[in-house]
Each structure stands twice: as C-alpha cells, then as structure tokens.
Design brief:
By secondary structure, this protein is of the alpha/beta class. The protein has a single domain, classed as Aldolase class I (TIM Barrel, Alpha-Beta Barrel). The chain is 38% helix and 18% strand. It has 10 helices and 14 strands.
Length: 307
C-alpha cells in the first residue's frame, strides 16, 4: 500500500451557491451521478452533502441523503463519507443525524469552533438566482461554526456506537490539540484519520509551510494517524500536490474549488479527480481502490452500513 494514495471527491458541499457555477450538482440524482463519475476517475471516497432540489440551499433532509447514498451504492463500492458539518447554521442534532441514520463507514467530524467566513465573496458578485444565497453568505460575517468540547464528546459517542470512522476536519493548529485531548480521555480511538482543511477565512492559510507544521505537530501530539488535505479555491491543486509529496491523501471536488485551472470552470468533480490522479501517477503513486482505502483506514466495510 506504500505507493497508494486515497483520493476523495467532495461533490457539492455547503459553501458554494448555485449562482457561482452552473455545474454545481443540486438534486440527489445529480449528486449521486457526480459521485459515480468521480469513482470512475479514480476517487475511492465521496464526501456527501445534500441540497434542496428546488433552490440549491444546503439541506439536512435525511430522505435526500437516502436517495444519494442508495443510488451510489447500487452502482459502485465507493466509500461514502457523510457530512456532519452540514450547512452553516444547522443544529448539532441535524448535523449528526447522518451517522445515526445511515451508519456510514466514514463521516466528517469538525474538530473545533472557528469563524467560518464566506461573506467576502459578496464583494465580487451581485447577481444571484435565489434570495437565500446573499443572505446565507452575508450572515457569516457574524457567524461562529460551533464545535464545542461537549458537542465533540457527544459526537464521538455517536460515531463509536455506529462504528463510523471519523474523518477529523482540522482547520487550524489548536484542533490537533483537541484531538490529542479526546484521545487521552478515551473518546477517540487511534489510529485517527485527519483531514487538514486549509484556506478558509477563519482557519489556517493554504501554504506548504502550514501543512508541514500541521503534519509535524500531529506526529508529535498524536503519533499514529492517517491524513489527507483539502484547500479552498485556487490553492486546491498546489496543496494536494504538496500532500502527495509528503505521503498524504488528497481531496478535490466542487465543494472546495469551482475551477479546473485559472479562468476555466470545472464541469465536474471528476475532472479534478482525473487531474490529481494524473499528477499522482507522475510522482509514482497510484490511486487506492475503495477496498484498498478501507484497509488503509481500517473501516468496518460497506456490508455494515445502513443504506
């Protein structure tokens, strides 16, 4: 497995809005189709959010999730990492419902509170299809994405009960300290899986120095872990390439970046998967299959999910 890299595709997310790209998948069918395309391009994992199919707003509707996950599972054996980040402003109970309901192999788990800012986008865009879009972006100037120690402790219990591996989303250095603390208290089990999320306003900037410092700190404080990186916007491919050189996994997709290259919109997350797979192969690495990724991450297996 030494030369295998886990590629994740983040399909739609809860950050970009429909007016930002005509290619952002909105309906459950579009999201499922995009996940399968990403699988065919070399992704072992799809990170799944859902949206209101009428207006594209981030949604916590379990039936929309059910449509997506059952559709993907019928067509391929891809690992599905269901969000517990959801959309900004959703309650903790709404967010963790994906794990309670579907018992996925993998679930995202944001490991600390941050100022999660998107309001700055409004300065460059005035034309929106839906009323909710500017309001949603604008409210983040006064928004804290809350992930308290109480919430994290409760989420750990729910993940453990359902044998769902947490993908720990690390936006800044202090969150590594949070992980080490929760391991020490017995709420998290090693080896953990860290996803370094860079370039969000409110979190760590997307630089190679920061990524190296985060990985080094995690080695010092945690020791035994697997890791991957994702980065917002134009930093996506550069940071993923750095991760490949450092032995980490990579996450691409329209949740993180709407472009395939400068000035050219990506028509699909699969385009970005194909690009990072090509880069990985140039560096002597091969994309892990879903079953290889399951072995690397020590997941329970697709036969134990509830969908």
């Amino acid at each position: 497995m030494k030369n295998k890299v886990i590629v994740t595709a983040a399909i739609t997310g809860g950050i970009h809005t429909p007016s930002m790209s005509p290619y952002l998948p909105i309906t459950p069918q579009q999201i499922a189709d995009e996940a399968v395309r990403a699988y065919e391009a070399g992704a072992a994992v799809a990170h799944i959010h859902v949206r209101n199919p009428e207006n594209g707003a981030p949604s916590a509707d379990m039936e929309l999730f059910r449509e997506v996950v059952t559709s993907v599972k019928k067509r391929c054996n891809m690992i599905l990492c269901l969000t517990t980040g959801g959309g900004l402003g959703q309650t903790a109970e709404q967010r963790v419902a994906t794990v309670r309901t579907f018992k996925p192999e993998l679930g995202s788990f944001n490991f600390g509170s941050i100022n999660f800012a998107l309001f700055q986008v409004l300065a460059g865009k005035k034309d929106f299809q839906h009323e909710w879009e500017p309001a949603y972006l604008g409210m983040t100037e006064d928004f804290i994405f809350p992930n308290t120690f109480k919430t994290m402790r409760e989420f750990c219990g729910i993940f453990n009960e359902n044998e769902t591996k947490p993908e720990l989303e690390i936006y800044d250095l202090g969150m590594i300290n949070n992980v080490a603390f929760m391991i020490e208290r017995g709420y998290l089990k090693k080896p953990v899986y860290l996803q370094f999320v860079l370039g969000i306003l409110g979190g760590a900037p997307a630089t190679v120095d920061n990524l190296m410092h985060l990985v080094r700190t995690a080695k010092e404080q945690i020791g035994d872990f697997s890791w991957s990186v994702c980065a917002a916007g134009r930093s996506q491919m550069a940071m993923c390439t750095a991760a490949l050189l450092m032995g980490g996994g990579v996450r691409v997709g329209l949740e993180d970046n709407l472009y395939i290259e400068k000035g050219v919109m990506a028509k699909s997350s699969a385009e970005q998967v194909s690009k990072i797979v090509r880069i990985a192969k140039e560096l002597g690495q091969e994309p892990a299959t879903p079953d290889e990724a399951r072995a690397i991450l020590k997941l329970k297996g697709i036969d134990k999910v509830n969908y």
